[in-house]
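Q: Got a minute? One more chain.
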Amino acid sequence: MKFLKKLYDWVLHWAETPYGPLALFLLALAESSIFPIPPDPLLIALCLGAIKKSWRFAFYTSLASIIGGAIGYLIGFGIWEAVDSFFFKYVPGFTESLFERVTANFHDYGFWYVFAAGFTPIPYKVFTIASGVFKLNFILFLIASAISRSLRFFVVAALFRKFGPGIKGFIEKYFNILAILFFILLIAGFLVVKFIVK
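A: Always. Here it is, folded:
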């Protein structure tokens, strides 16, 4: 935990440097496959420091995260058997038991798993790699990633644009809960549509 706290502080310190946007892009890229700290804290810090650039920061984060997700997919697709022990041993949050639970029904629900992980606090990297391991249709994978990751980061930008710096504490305290609730409502909407269509 001390290591993760230091890592978290190191991530946040980039907001106070001219390299903040570049660090945000690289962090979002790495978090989708190997890095344990999500880009949200740095995104929030950068939006707080330059609210008018919030859309731009959200775009950088979304684009990098989608590219990073594709890298995770390629890891799972091409070299997983050679690197799985590294991930289980050295990547925080990437455990063998979690990976086994995630992949139990991946053939049937892979698209929705990726979508949920992209928007909620669930470790996204586990699902990007699992998508490659189970050869989830790559176009579907990209669609799920693009929609969910963009929603996640543009919601943060929209809140800053709408409410200004005062929203920072609210986002930091309730973002995970709000993300899960939003996802539940979204799925409920899809189920309602499916029921009506039938």
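A: Residues 2-197 form one domain.
Q: Perfect, thanks.
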